[in-house]
Amino acid sequence: GQSLEQPSEVTAVEGAIVQINCTYQTSGFYGLSWYQQHDGGAPTFLSYNALDGLEETGRFSSFLSRSDSYGYLLLQELQMKDSASYFCAVPNTGFQKLVFGTGTRLLVSP
Amino acid sequence: GAVVSQHPSWVICKSGTSVKIECRSLDFQATTMFWYRQFPKQSLMLMATSNEGSKATYEQGVEKDKFLINHASLTLSTLTVTSAHPEDSSFYICSAREGSGVNTEAFFGQGTRLTVV
């Protein structure tokens, strides 16, 4: 099976940089995705890493190290609207389902 | 990106009644849809995988007779919570994939907040 662990909560101030970590245990690995979810809303896709290294998309970057079974989401130039929950996720074999991490609640203060 | 529409966005029902939640892929065909349940401040827990034209595959611990899933077409899947009880109150979210590759993005409906009174 799959299990993904994340810190439960992270706090930061506007303009800062924050890193949200994800460690995973999977039987087979097919990439790591990141999703953002605001309270009461649907998760929205942020990024996907299939190979080791850093993927950059605007203010958000995602990193993967397959040898360490570890990845992180890096958020730069934080804005108040970035306050949300962030989930890492992995597909199982055959991508028949997406398994989500425990989730990290990010609180951005002025 | 592709759009997944979920309806209703919220519903309040009496204990013992049934509630149907619809999930539609508006601009693509989804051979597979997923149903999740989420409690406050917790992660999304997969309930079942819905494949068009076949029976849904339920996760361990999910009662298939209580949570009826029908995937009648490539654009519509429904989840019916039968004989709902207060403990069924939760946020239910559907998801659909546009393709079949391992890096295919999953699109989510806006969720349905169910309150059973």
Q: Could you please describe the fold and organization of this structure?
A:
- The complex is a heterodimer of chains A (110) and B (117).
- By secondary structure, chain A is mainly β.
- Chain A is built from no helices and eleven strands.
- Chain A starts with a strand and ends with a strand.
- The mean pLDDT of chain A is 92.
- With 117 residues, chain B is an all-beta fold.
- Chain B has no helices and eleven strands.
- In chain B, the strands form two sheets. In chain B, strands 2, 4, 5, 6, 9, 10 and 11 form a seven-stranded mixed beta sheet that branches. In chain B, strands 1-3-8-7 form a four-stranded antiparallel beta sheet, with no helix packed on it.
- Chain B is globular and about 40 Å long.
- Chain A binds chain B through residues 30-31, 33, 40-45, 48, 50, 85, 87, 91, 95-103, 105, and chain B through 1, 6, 32, 34, 41-46, 49, 57, 91, 93, 95, 97, 100-111, 113.
Brief sketch in words of this structure:
The complex is a heterodimer of chains A (110) and B (117). By secondary structure, chain A is mostly beta strands.
Topology readout:
The complex is a heterodimer of chains A (110) and B (117).
Chain A: E1 3-5, E2 9-13, E3 18-25, E4 32-37, E5 44-49, E6 53-57, E7 60-65, E8 70-75, E9 84-91, E10 98-100, E11 104-109
Parallel strand pairs in A: 2-11
Antiparallel strand pairs in A: 1-3, 3-8, 4-5, 4-9, 6-7, 7-8, 9-10, 9-11
Chain B: E1 4-7, E2 10-13, E3 19-25, E4 32-38, E5 45-51, E6 57-58, E7 67-73, E8 76-81, E9 90-97, E10 106-108, E11 112-116
Parallel strand pairs in B: 2-11
Antiparallel strand pairs in B: 1-3, 3-8, 4-5, 4-9, 5-6, 7-8, 9-10, 9-11
Helix content of chain B: under 10%
Biggest sheet character of chain A = 6 strands, mixed
Report the order of strands and helices of chain A: EEEEEEEEEEE
Morphology of chain A? globular
Instruction: Please state the average pLDDT score of chain B.
Output: 90
Tell me the span between the first and last alpha carbons of chain B: 37 Å
Oligomer: heterodimer
Percent range for helical residues of chain A?
under 10%
Find the count of extended strands of chain A (DSSP E, 2+ residues): 11
Number of helices of chain B: 0
Structural class of chain B: mainly beta
Greatest interface: A-B, 24 and 29 residues
Q: Uncertain runs of chain A with pLDDT below 50, 5 residues or more?
A: none
Query: What pattern of helices and strands is seen along the backbone of chain B?
Result: EEEEEEEEEEE
Tally of strands of chain B: 11
| Strand percentage of chain A | over 45%
Radius of gyration of chain A over alpha carbons? Answer: 13 Å
Question: Span from first to last CA of chain A?
Answer: 40 Å
